[in-house]
Each structure stands twice: as structure tokens, then as C-alpha cells.
Design a protein that fits this description.
- The protein has 317 residues and is an all-alpha fold.
- The chain has one domain: P1 Nuclease (Orthogonal Bundle), CATH 1.10.575.10.
- 47% of the residues lie in helices and 2% in strands.
- The protein has 13 helices and 2 strands.
- A two-stranded parallel sheet has the order 1-2.
- Helix 2 packs across helix 10.
- The longest helix has 29 residues.
- It is globular, with a radius of gyration of 18 Å.
Length: 317
């Protein structure tokens, strides 16, 4: 398992800021943030602009280098917000940060460090915050493994609580960039599920072990890459601005367990379906499968963005 994770890191290391496997890649996370930014109130836009300047990647100008020269100030704030959503993936390959759990850091360690929330002085990568490996089976394999904690669902609860508190702006900056990212993560079906079967008794790591006859090589990366793969926010805006608005009733749901349950259900009904059979493949995704997957990804990105905006508008103090 550890060797597989390392291979995935190497394969995807050039996607964005030399980051490793990530939901939607950087492009999709920036698209979620773009959608969210359009729904923020003017007061919240001003508030997040202040908070993002406390991030170390803003201070060392890594983010600013991705913004075209001459970009108007209001568009710069938008692009910084978009880029900030990729920071939790960028630190996976930043030598200033360290893995803090077993299996190359993808499993949570024991002890309080796993769920601590202390801000930018924390140089742990917390890779296990990015997903909720909820198990399901299609071949009757049992027993199903337990869901490791902490995970994306438990961590979002901690971060949003701090955002609504009287904690320092330095801490809220850290929590904000994580929330920009994790809300997008849990709307990618394979970040909320792991298929258990005869070939994978402990789960297929959210489709990372399922191989495809496709340039993406494996099922998880295929779904990650559906929105796109550019690292430049200016390339993301045409895609994100063309997305159909999310259903207002669905967008109003603020319960994270519902978000992850939706993603789990999509894994069962739209991800692990023909031509994705039992076992680890390789499988060949048909044009029909790809077309349906693209539509689902577009819908999930739009929905994640609107829910993220609602969270920030209602909870950021």
C-alpha cells in the first residue's frame, strides 16, 4: 500500500505546486473556490482577503506568481482565493512540512496531533484530513473495515467551529484555507468512499488501486482530473464561470455528513458501474461513462462552491 501511494505521488507531482494526489486536482479546487467567491458578501470578500495574507505562501509570493501582470485588484483577490484552495495539497510536496502518520502519512497517527488545530506553526501535512474512506462492497465481502478518524468530515467540523469563534485571525487563516480545500474534497465521490472486495479486503483506497487503460492510469486520478488540470487560475475561470448553478435546495444543506453520503452514493451508482467491474482492473472507460462522469463532476464542483460560500457567509466571524 505504501509503495502504491508513493507511485501516485510521483505520477501527479507536476500537477500543481508539485503536489500529490488530490480531489479534482488544483484546477477543480480553484473552480470550487471561484464559484464560492461569486456568492460571498462584500464584507466576507474583504474579510477573507485579510486572512489569506497571513498564509506563508502569500508572504513568500508563491501565490502571486500565478497571477498575470496587470490583473485588476478585485480580480487579484479572486485569484488569490482560488489559489488558496490548493494550499493543503501543495504542502504535501513542500519539504518544510512532514508526514505525520503511517503509510506515507495517509493514515492518521495516534494521539492529539492528528486533530490538532493550532495554525501555521503546525508543519504536519495531515494527509488523512483529505478524505473519508467510508467502505462499501459490491461482492458481499465482510466484515467492512471501520472508517479511520480523524478524517475530512470530522476535521471540517473542527475548522468551521473555529471560524465562527473569537479565535485569532492567524488561526482563522489556517482554518479558512483548509476549509476551501476540504469542502471540495468531500464532493469528489472517491474522497468519500472505498470499495471493499475480494481483491481489496481493506478497501481500494478511494479507487487508487483500480487501474484504467487511460492516460490517467487509475480510477481516482480519472475522477480528479475531470474538471481540468491547469495550475493557472486564469485558465480555470472560463470553466468555472460556465457551470450551471447548483440546485438551491441542495446548496442550502450545511450538514457535512450529508455531503459525504451523497458522494458515497455516487460512488455506488456512477463510479463503480460498467465498465468498471469487480477487482482492480485494468478497465477501459467507455465514452458514455466518461460523458456521465463529466456531468457529475461539473455538478459536484458547482454544488461544493455554493455550499462553501454559504458556510463562509454564515460562520466566518
Amino acid at each position: 500500500m505504501a509503495k502504491l501511494r508513493q507511485l501516485i505521488v510521483i505520477t501527479l507531482s507536476l500537477v500543481f505546486f508539485s503536489s500529490s494526489s488530490q480531489a479534482w486536482f488544483g484546477f477543480g479546487h480553484m473552480a470550487v473556490a471561484y464559484v464560492a467567491y461569486q456568492k460571498l458578501t462584500p464584507a466576507k470578500k474583504a474579510r477573507v482577503a485579510v486572512l489569506l495574507k497571513k498564509n506563508p505562501y502569500y508572504k513568500n509570493k508563491k501565490w502571486q506568481k500565478l497571477i498575470p501582470a496587470g490583473t485588476p485588484a478585485d480580480q487579484q483577490n479572486l485569484m488569490l482565493f482560488m489559489i488558496a484552495a490548493t494550499w493543503p495539497d501543495a504542502i504535501k510536496s513542500d519539504s518544510s512540512y512532514v508526514n505525520d502518520g503511517p503509510d506515507s502519512g495517509d493514515e492518521p497517527p495516534t494521539g492529539p496531533v492528528a486533530s490538532q488545530n493550532k495554525g501555521y506553526s503546525d508543519h504536519n501535512r495531515h494527509k488523512y484530513w483529505h478524505f473519508v474512506d467510508t467502505p462499501f462492497t459490491q461482492d458481499g465481502t465482510s466484515p467492512l473495515p471501520t472508517v479511520p478518524e480523524p478524517n475530512a468530515e470530522t476535521e471540517i467540523a473542527i475548522l468551521r467551529k473555529a471560524l465562527a469563534s473569537t479565535k485569532s485571525d492567524a488561526l482563522k487563516s489556517y482554518d479558512l484555507v483548509w476549509l476551501l480545500h476540504l469542502v471540495g474534497d468531500v464532493h469528489q465521490p472517491l474522497h468519500s468512499s472505498t470499495r471493499v472486495g475480494a481483491a481489496d479486503l481493506t478497501g481500494d483506497i478511494g479507487g487508487n488501486k483500480v487501474t484504467l487503460n487511460d492516460p490517467s492510469k487509475e480510477l481516482h486520478a480519472f475522477w480528479d482530473g475531470l474538471p481540468g488540470d491547469s495550475s493557472k487560475p486564469a485558465d480555470v475561470i472560463p470553466y468555472a464561470s460556465s457551470l450551471a448553478p447548483a440546485d438551491s435546495t441542495l446548496a442550502s444543506i450545511d450538514t457535512v455528513s450529508t455531503w459525504t453520503s451523497e458522494s458515497l452514493q455516487l460512488s455506488k451508482t456512477a463510479v463503480y458501474i460498467d465498465p468498471i467491474g469487480l477487482g482492480d482492473g485494468p478497465f477501459t472507460a467507455s465514452p458514455e461513462y466518461k460523458d456521465k462522469a463529466q456531468k457529475i463532476a461539473d455538478q459536484r464542483v458547482a454544488l461544493a462552491g455554493e455550499r462553501l460560500a454559504n458556510l463562509i457567509n454564515s460562520e466566518l466571524k
